[in-house]
Design brief:
Elements (H helix, E strand, L loop, with lengths): L4 E2 L5 H6 L5 E6 L4 H16 L5 E6 L4 H6 L7 E6 L2 E7 L4 H11 L1
Parallel strand pairs: 1-3, 2-3
Antiparallel strand pairs: 2-4, 4-5
């Protein structure tokens, strides 16, 4: 079961900016190959970090306003939030350990 959160401009403040735990926000699109490749990795991380951190997904086509607000130009882009602030970012599909290392640094 995936515990990733589908993010929209309506729930972004509640789920990400007001979150008590770090949040990794994945900006993706349905046609993006690397986004599909990184999807299962993020699902695993969402389960592994349940209760300690959150993984959220923003469909950058449907939520172009949010993607623009965070300067997302290429996808997948992962933005790491802590205390409501973007503190780190990865662009492109990367191995699971790269994401978990960055996430561990925020816990």
């Amino acid at each position: 079961m995936s515990s990733e959160i589908e993010l929209t401009k309506d729930n972004f403040k509640t789920e990400v900016l007001d979150s008590a735990v770090p949040v990794v926000v994945d900006f993706w699109a349905t046609w993006c190959g690397p986004c599909k490749a990184i999807g299962p990795v993020l699902s695993e991380l969402a389960a592994a970090y349940a209760g300690r951190a959150k993984i959220g997904k923003v469909n950058s086509e449907q939520q172009a306003e949010l993607a623009g607000e965070y300067g997302v130009i290429s996808i997948p882009t992962l933005i790491f939030f802590k205390n409501g602030q973007p503190v780190d970012q990865i662009t492109g599909a990367v191995p699971k350990n790269v994401i978990s290392k960055k996430l561990d640094a925020l816990l």
